[in-house]
Amino acid sequence: VQLQASGGGLVQAGGSLRLSCAASGFSLDRYVIGWFRQAPGKEREGVSCISSSGGSTYYGGFVKGRFTISRDNAKNTVYLQMNNLKPEDTAVYYCAADRIVTTIPTMRNRECLPSRYREVWGQGTQVTVSS
Question: Could you say which DSSP state residue 116 is in?
Fold first, then answer.
């Protein structure tokens, strides 16, 4: 049972990356998936989360319309499309899965906190945005 985060890299400010979170050993379709990030010296924070059906999402305030989370349960994968990246987006990005109750149609902040996701965590992928 594991999650594999991929798609990170080095990009210039204003560029784009698409992160993928692929599950193996279990089916994602009953799980809420969250993307989290941790920059050096900072606490891990919620970037975006999506309900098991995909019908409810949450975005951190700093996203401001730049990121889009989506999921393809048939491919057992969740994506995070990141556009207009900024140097302050530089961090290690993690995905995590848990079977928590979510609010419809918009998830609440407390449903996208790292502490709420306890079942499965991926290993992280580095995103570096140069100015």
Answer: G
Determine phi and psi for 25, rounding to 5 degrees: 85, -5
Q: What type of residue is 3?
A: L
Per-residue pLDDT of the chain (131 residues; tens, 9 = 90+): 999 999 999 999 999 999 999 999 999 999 999 999 999 999 999 999 999 999 999 999 999 999 999 999 999 999 999 999 999 999 999 999 999 989 988 999 999 999 999 999 999 999 999 99
**Cα gap 103→123, rounded to integer Å:** 27
Contact (Cβ atoms closer than 8 angstroms) between residue 14 and residue 131 = no
| DSSP for residue 106 | B
What ranges make up the beta strands (E) of the chain?
Answer: 2-6, 9-12, 17-24, 32-38, 45-50, 57-59, 67-72, 77-82, 91-98, 120-121, 125-130
